[in-house]
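FIELD: query
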Amino acid sequence: MVRDDRKCPATQACAVLVTRRAGGLALITQPDHAALAGLLAEHWGNERFAIPAARESLVCAARHHDDGWLELDRRPTYNAQQQRPAHFTELPLSETIGPYGRGVESVYRRDPHAGALASMHFSGFYTSRWGCGSGSASPDPLARQVVAEQEARWMPALREAWGYRGRRSDFDAATWHAYEVLQAVDLLSLAIGLMDLDGPGGSGEALDMAATLARLDQPGGGRILTSVPTDAAGEHLAIRLQPAGPGRLELDPYPFGEPELEVAMPSRELDDRAYASPEEVAVALHAADARERRVTLAVPGQR
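FIELD: result
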């Protein structure tokens, strides 16, 4: 089971992934999502998908890229209009920009190269993941501020991490490769947390994973991770995520070193009802037992 020692306070609600399933609400915390992203980064790479040269920094960035949520976790996150826990995509940028930015700074203190990857990830929210996504740059002035500040922050950090060793162009290519793998493991971890993988699986239209992030009612069928790099200078592929029975998700093409990779993520179940206050949400959340959601990632057709 993927575990993390960064816990939400026992008396307040956390910033969470929220989905409706089986007549209730399923909640997953950001630290648990990030811990799984870090594990996926550790296992990334095979004959088709190269292990990033900046692997250690990638793993650090993946594990800690959402540490800014930890500060937000110290205050209740609540959708007052719908009287329920707030899904993480529902929090306005004006509330998240400061805490998330300070979380990125904490990654710099761990590892400057990892911090730069976290900066690129943060600013990528508003630049269509620096071209990996299918959208366009955000026109929000606050979003443009994030992009400008993070670009200015990561440039000296990358120069420090490069250290004038080897070709700078090779180092920069390796950094962007690591960033793009970070996007893939982030979205795959989110997919594992948001998709309903308890059913029999089956066929159906595969949707762009990034386009489904805001949905509490997740559609059935598969997902697509777009623009996943094979290496620092290679092609970019779309990976199809296809449910293939309870607790099984097939990836085509498959990016990990093992033909099967079992992962787990804690999920807490709440009644799908009106909650009168953030405090009521917090009490219900922390009274709920965590259910271990186990998923096997596999090569298609292999049992």
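FIELD: remark
The chain has one domain: 16-298.
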